[in-house]
Design a protein that fits this description.
By secondary structure, this protein is mostly helical. Helices cover 84% and strands 0% of the residues. It folds into 2 domains: 407 residues, no CATH class; 73 residues, no CATH class. The longest helix has 53 residues.
Length: 483
């Protein structure tokens, strides 16, 4: 069985790449094509993303769980993989047809034909989105190497070729090129790892569960992506552009939390399927502890550094995005809770219908808030609607998963986290009072804040961090002894 620590390290490297490359590209592109160009691309990618979600049809969650359950049986693994793949071929075909009709029949979308043609290609290529296979097999090394190589190549092309505001379609095309390269590697590696065999397939057995997972992913996307759609239709591309950097920064921060959660889902699914109840509960407890140790200081740091972050990432043209980022930061702790209660517990224990209900509650809250708040506060209204939706969804997931999480939010570790975060916040707040440029301010705050927070947790003897610190020191001592 693959090492959880090794998987987490691979996924952490991938998370770092997923933060650094998109952020570097966004810093460059937002200054070249401006808020309106960013808004057009963001709107088109979000619009196409909904059709892509339907095409994948819940496989990104369901596929991970099912592959994790049968991975010890090569025959069943090949059968499950090919059955989900064929279903995705059918659903992607339907999705691309509806996407084409939607673009052609809408005057606003039709006016940006080349942009939506590029977006449609990414929907079509979703057939080869096989990360659910590699995650279920816990093959994070392949995912990490492939993704970093492709992202580096794609970023280089953007820096070289995107030169003026009218290059927004080219920017979108280069993004799709990066996706295409990922999918080509996926196809070749899946053929080698599992193989394609379309005989003796039982497609119907997956349809009920896939339908539930498709509803989950679509409903959750209603406030993860529909924020830009509603904002774009109600206020226009300019305000979508102002919303983009705040959303980008907050979501990049959340990817740190997702790195821990994604690694544990295949393992928790496998443990639950094999009846290892005590080990299952231990893994869930560790996951909750780990994500909250990240989420609480991350939320405080974004609130304190919202101004420097926006100026650093997008420049003075986006100063109105500072308040938006502070509102977006409100989602950090609810999303961390949802990653464990929903993703780790409800999905792994076959209670996806309760997860779906939680997502639907969040979506209802989003729409009720969005149509009231966006006309009043524009991009800030969209951020407020998303925050309300995430809080409502997380509360429902905590309620439904309460029997599995009993006692996990009690204990001294939350108090220690609060004390360590307060120490970090004091240092960061002091840095923000210095009259220095955004880049050095962010660097000093990030490095100093992480050091102070980690040292405080070690001094307070938080179980996870203190154990990790001791293990690192032991490894260093062994290395010196061998030397």
């Amino acid at each position: 069985m693959p090492s959880l620590l090794r998987n987490y390290l691979y996924n952490s490297l991938l998370t770092a790449a997923n933060m650094v490359f998109p952020l570097a590209i966004f810093i460059f592109v937002s200054r070249v094509i401006g808020p309106e160009g960013i808004g057009k691309v963001g709107f088109a990618q979000t619009f196409g993303g909904y059709f892509g979600l339907f095409g994948i049809f819940g496989a990104q969650l369901y596929g991970v769980r099912e592959v994790a359950r049968v991975r010890e049986d090569a025959v069943q693994l090949k059968k499950v993989f090919n059955e989900i793949f064929v279903i995705n071929c059918i659903t992607v075909g339907f999705a691309i047809a509806v996407f084409a009709v939607s673009v052609v029949s809408n005057q606003r979308l039709r006016a940006e034909g080349p942009l939506y043609a590029v977006t449609g290609l990414s929907v079509l290529l979703g057939i080869f989105s096989f990360d659910w296979l590699f995650q279920g097999l816990e093959n994070y090394r392949y995912i990490m190497i492939r993704s970093i190589a492709v992202k580096a190549f794609s970023a280089a092309l953007v820096f070289v070729l995107v030169r003026k505001s009218s290059d927004y379609v080219l920017f979108a095309a280069l993004t799709v090129l990066g996706i295409s390269a990922n999918y080509i590697f996926n196809f070749l590696y899946a053929q080698k790892l599992v193989g394609f065999d379309l005989s003796h397939l039982e497609l119907r057995r997956h349809v009920p569960a896939l339908s539930r997972f498709a509803l989950i992913t679509f409903a959750s996307s209603l406030y993860v992506g529909m924020d830009k759609i509603v904002l774009g239709f109600l206020q226009g591309d300019y305000y979508v552009g102002l919303y983009a950097p705040a959303e980008k920064i907050s979501r990049l921060g959340l990817s740190i939390i997702a790195a821990a959660s994604a690694v544990l889902l295949p393992r928790t699914s496998n443990l639950f399927a094999n009846g290892a109840a005590e080990e299952f509960k231990r893994h869930v407890s560790t996951s909750l502890h780990a994500v909250m140790l990240i989420a609480i200081p991350l939320f405080v740091a974004i609130e304190l550094l919202a101004g420097p972050l926006i100026l650093l990432v997008s420049g003075n043209a986006y100063v109105d995005s500072i308040a938006t980022l502070r509102l977006e930061a409100l989602i950090v702790i609810p999303v961390a809770i949802a990653n464990v209660a929903g993703y780790q517990v409800l999905i792994a224990t076959n209670e996806e219908s309760k997860y779906l209900l939680s997502i639907i509650v969040g979506a209802i809250i989003f729409f009720l808030t969005a149509f009231l708040a966006i006309p009043l506060w524009k991009q800030n209204g969209a951020a407020l609607a998303v925050a309300g939706a995430e809080m409502a969804g997380a509360a429902c997931e905590l309620f439904f998963a309460r029997k599995h999480l009993s006692g996990m939010l009690k204990g001294h570790w939350l108090g220690k986290c609060a004390l360590a975060t307060t120490a970090m916040a004091g240092l960061v707040a002091a840095f923000t009072r210095l009259a220095i440029a955004p880049l050095p301010l962010f660097m000093f705050s990030a490095i100093g804040g992480v050091v102070v927070y980690a040292l405080a947790e070690v001094i307070l003897k938080d179980e996870l961090i203190f154990t990790g610190f001791l293990a690192l020191r032991k490894r260093m001592d062994i290395g010196r002894a061998r030397g």
